Structures are given as C-alpha cells and as structure tokens.
C-alpha cells in the first residue's frame, strides 16, 4: 500500500513539474496589416466617360481630403478589361484604412469629419444628394468586401 501511495505521489510530482515547464513561444504565423474596402462597380453602357469625369471632379477631391486629414490611408481605382457577362464589374475602388475600427466604426466624431469634407466640396446636403443620385445613374454597385493585409512571418528554426 505504501508503494502505491508513493507511486501516485511521484506521478503527481512528475505531472506538476512537466506542466510547469513552458515551451518556447512561437511567433504567430502572420502579422495583421491594414484593412481595405474593395467595391466593384458595373458602369452602365455608354456612361464610362461621364463616370470617370465624375470621379475626377468629385470623388478624387473628396478622397484626397480624407487622406490629408488621416481618415483613410490611401485609395485607388482599377479596371477589368474582360467581362464575365451582364452585370459583371468593370471598375473597382479600394480604400485603405489603418484597421477594422476605422473601416467599419463610423462613430459620431469620424462621421462628422467625413460629413464636413463632403459638405465643403458640394456646398450643401442637397447638392451632395443630387451628386450621389447622379452617380447612381451611371453605375451599379456589384459588391463590396472588407479585406485585411497580412504579412507572412518566417518559420521558426
């Protein structure tokens, strides 16, 4: 009986000691980066010149001010030269933010800054609404997604 208790005692000590040893920490496999909203648009037939003119005179100016005020990190447009059929996208927009909070959390303070920028550009809420309605006549939003950049960390040796 004494041997059984002694065996259980040493087994418990062994378990405690083996649990107390902390393995070397391994670095995470990736490091999170900036967050981007990617939006795909289908420009209506015959409206590409009007749409690009709208982007150059309105969207570009607004995005530049947002970037200047630190609300966004960057923005850019891209095109797709091929089509998968009717309703496929042909112009894309990527707006990059520091993190998810900046990309999706438009709190009152941030919202007021975005609002002030567009009001300063258009002059009034009514003119801003007219511009938004006009651009909706030129294109259709196909989809909008959030993506996060990641950096692959080196494998531990």
Any chance you could write out the topology, listing elements then pairs?
Blueprint: H1 2-20, E1 30-43, H2 48-68, E2 74-79, E3 91-97, H3 100-104, H4 108-122, H5 125-138, E4 139-152
Antiparallel strand pairs: 1-3, 1-4, 2-3
What does this structure look like?
This protein has 157 residues and is an alpha+beta fold. It has one domain: Alpha-Beta Plaits. The protein is built from 5 helices and 4 strands, in the order αβαββαααβ. The protein has helices spanning 2-20, 48-68, 100-104, 108-122, 125-138; strands at residues 30-43, 74-79, 91-97, 139-152. The protein has a 4-stranded antiparallel beta sheet. α2 crosses α4 (108-122) and α4 crosses α5 (125-138).
Put the structure in a nutshell.
47% of the residues lie in helices and 26% in strands. The chain is an alpha+beta fold.
Summary tags:
157 residues, alpha+beta, Alpha-Beta Plaits, 5 helices, 4 strands, globular
Strand order of the largest sheet: 2-3-1-4
CATH C-level category: Alpha Beta
Strand proportion, as a percent range, falls in 25-35%
Count of the domains: 1
List the total number of helices.
5
């Amino acid at each position: 009986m004494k041997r059984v208790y002694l065996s259980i005692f040493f087994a418990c000590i062994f378990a405690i000691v083996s649990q107390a040893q902390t393995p070397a920490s391994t670095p995470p496999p990736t490091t999170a980066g900036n967050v981007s909203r990617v939006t795909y648009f289908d420009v209506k037939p015959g409206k590409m010149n009007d749409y690009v003119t709208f982007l150059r005179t309105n969207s570009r100016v607004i995005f530049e001010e947002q970037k200047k005020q630190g609300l966004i990190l960057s923005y850019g447009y891209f095109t797709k030269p091929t089509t998968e059929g009717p309703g496929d996208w042909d112009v894309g927009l990527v707006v990059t933010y520091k993190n998810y909070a900046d990309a999706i959390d438009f709190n009152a303070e941030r919202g007021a800054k975005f609002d002030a920028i567009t009001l300063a550009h258009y002059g009034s809420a009514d003119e801003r609404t007219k511009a938004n309605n006009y651009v909706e006549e030129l294109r259709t939003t196909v989809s909008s997604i959030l993506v996060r950049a990641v950096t692959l960390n080196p494998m531990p040796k």
